[in-house]
């Protein structure tokens, strides 16, 4: 990311000021608690690059090398209460927004060859992934999502320590195990060779009970190309479609009968907006949690959606989508849910 943006984030992480060497800043290893002897980087061994896309973190002592936002995500486990998880998510969005046009608009930018992770998901389900423990069932109830809806969307429980082949790997190639008990949200699309069937292209997970870090990408994929719930498209012509932040909001709206998809954040890329336009002809309601509506990224999301979809409306409502009733949604959209 740009140097000015990078410095702003480093200040929020309490890492600034740092000594500069060319286009890099020198710092102690962000992963020293887990990768260094006695959990201490006694001599600043790492660098952070500026004006590169993305900004890279590299430790020459332990060998860690990855995008800076990923290093912050991994480090936030040891920085509880300091806001690192939120900063990591904002850094990831800033990286995508600040890429030079020459990088963003490469040939074939709209082409993505998905990796079929359906076999791994199937094994997880067959091993009891959709047999939820009590604390996960309670979590669903708190979020107004039924067990039946969770199973319809193939949500799986994974215990801390779970590993599977397509999971995220560290720089040395070793699989990074699930750190917490979590609910896995598979991103499903229509199978390119058999559109009547769905396939899994990746998955994010949410720790249960709640942790500082909200979502963790366990099965890596091109998140900027896909929508959570896109396997349920196309919608009924002329009916409303809700665009929300996360899978829990999407699941609640779905079980009330209203079509919805989720962004896992607020980032609307050209491929995402184009997919909605190809599969939906009615009004689009961008429905966010009340505490998100004043962010600058909301304006960017609205602009991204309007480039391909003429009727986009920002919902101003007193509660999160997951706490709405069917009557609330009727009032928002001015219509009944489409026939099931």
Q: Which short descriptors sum up this protein?
A:
single chain; 340 residues; alpha+beta; DNA Primase, Chain A; DNA primase DNAg catalytic core, N-terminal domain; Dna Topoisomerase Vi A Subunit, Chain: A, domain 2; five-stranded antiparallel sheet; 12 helices; globular
Could you explain the architecture of this structure?
With about 350 residues, this protein is of the alpha+beta class. The protein folds into three domains: about 5-105, Alpha-Beta Complex (DNA Primase, Chain A), CATH 3.90.580; about 120-220, DNA primase DNAg catalytic core, N-terminal domain, CATH 3.90.980; about 230-335, 3-Layer(aba) Sandwich (Dna Topoisomerase Vi A Subunit, Chain: A, domain 2). Helices cover about 30% and strands about 20% of the residues. The chain is built from twelve helices and 13 strands. A five-stranded antiparallel beta sheet has the order 1-2-3-4-5. The protein has a four-stranded antiparallel beta sheet with strand order 6-7-8-9, with helices on one face. Strands 11-10-12-13 form a four-stranded parallel beta sheet, sandwiched between helices. Strand 7 (about 180-190) and strand 8 form a beta hairpin. The chain is globular.
């Amino acid at each position: 990311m740009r140097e000015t943006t990078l410095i702003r984030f480093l200040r929020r992480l309490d890492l600034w000021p740092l000594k500069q060497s060319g286009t890099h800043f020198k710092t102690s290893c962000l992963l020293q608690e887990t990768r260094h002897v006695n959990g201490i980087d006694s001599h600043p061994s790492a660098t952070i690059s500026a004006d590169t896309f993305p900004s890279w973190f590299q430790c020459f002592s332990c060998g860690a090398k990855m995008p800076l936002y990923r290093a912050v995500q991994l480090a936030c486990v040891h920085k509880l209460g300091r806001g690192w998880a939120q900063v990591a998510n904002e850094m990831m969005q800033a990286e995508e927004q600040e890429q030079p046009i020459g990088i963003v608009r490469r040939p074939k930018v709209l082409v993505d060859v998905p990796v079929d992770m359906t076999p791994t998901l199937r094994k997880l389900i067959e091993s009891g992934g959709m047999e939820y423990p009590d604390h996960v069932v309670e979590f669903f109830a708190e979020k107004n999502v039924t067990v039946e809806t969770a199973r319809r969307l193939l949500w799986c429980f994974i215990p801390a320590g779970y590993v599977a082949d397509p999971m995220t790997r560290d720089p040395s190639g070793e699989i990074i195990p699930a750190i917490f008990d979590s609910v896995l949200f598979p991103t499903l699309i229509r199978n390119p060779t058999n559109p009547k069937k769905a396939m899994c292209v990746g998955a994010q997970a949410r720790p249960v009970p709640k942790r500082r870090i909200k979502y963790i990408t366990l099965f890596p994929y091109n998140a900027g190309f896909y929508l959570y719930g896109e396997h349920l498209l196309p919608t009924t012509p002329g009916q409303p479609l809700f665009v929300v932040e996360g899978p829990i909001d999407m699941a609640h709206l779905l079980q009330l009968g209203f079509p919805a998809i989720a962004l896992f954040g607020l980032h609307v890329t050209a491929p995402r907006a184009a997919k909605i336009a190809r599969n939906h002809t009615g009004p689009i309601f961008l429905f966010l949690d009340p505490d998100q509506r004043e962010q600058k990224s909301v304006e960017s999301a609205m602009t991204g959606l309007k480039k391909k979809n003429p009727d986009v409306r920002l919902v101003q409502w007193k509660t999160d989508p997951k706490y709405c009733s069917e009557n609330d949604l009727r009032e928002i959209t001015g219509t009944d849910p489409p026939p099931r």
